[in-house]
Specification:
alpha+beta
Length: about 170
């Protein structure tokens, strides 16, 4: 075994030498690490810039799509409104047709119509009948079936030809 003993004490290095030693040994690592961070940030900046450019292009494309589709959407809204209006008209006509068909199906054979006024939801009838019991059963049928909320037999007059009557039917369901 070999031992080495240094009997001379180590000299305390002055501050300038300590700074020089630190800068030569450790500062170069700090500079290299700093340069690596700067290079990494630089490349990251390229990546972020490319993403920003891509996003701007996609926004421009979407603006163009909206500009192209906007007239189509406007036309679709107009067609939707027209369709809704036509459906309402068809529904009103269907309701009106059902109301008239129901009335004509129940109307007695012995009666004749002299005046028929049609509104969207009501019928006003003036007519003549020779058989008063049939008119009475017709009136009772209309009352019991309750297809019309208002069934008003306003007048019956005896004439030379039979009985003249006025009937108002309203609010068909």
């Amino acid at each position: 075994m070999k031992y080495s003993i240094n009997l001379l004490p180590k000299k305390e290095a002055p501050l300038a030498e300590q700074v020089m030693y630190f800068s030569l040994n450790y500062l170069r690592y700090i500079i290299v690490i700093t340069q690596l961070v700067v290079i990494g940030v630089f490349f990251y900046r390229f990546q972020i810039d490319q993403q920003i450019i891509d996003l701007k292009e996609s926004v421009d494309q979407k603006k163009e799509i909206v500009q192209v589709v906007n007239p189509l959407l406007t036309e679709a809204e107009i067609i939707t409104k027209r369709t809704a209006t036509s459906e309402d008209v068809i529904q009103t006509q269907t309701h009106f047709t059902r109301m008239v068909n129901y009335f004509l199906a129940q109307f007695p054979e012995s009666a004749t119509l002299s005046d028929l006024k049609l509104d969207t939801n009501s019928l006003t009838i003036a007519g003549t009948t020779t058989d008063l019991p049939q008119l009475q059963s017709f009136y009772s049928l209309l009352k019991t079936e309750k297809k019309f909320k208002v069934v008003d037999l306003s007048s019956i007059k005896k004439t030379d030809y039979g009985y003249d009557f006025n009937l108002k039917l309203a609010n068909y369901e």
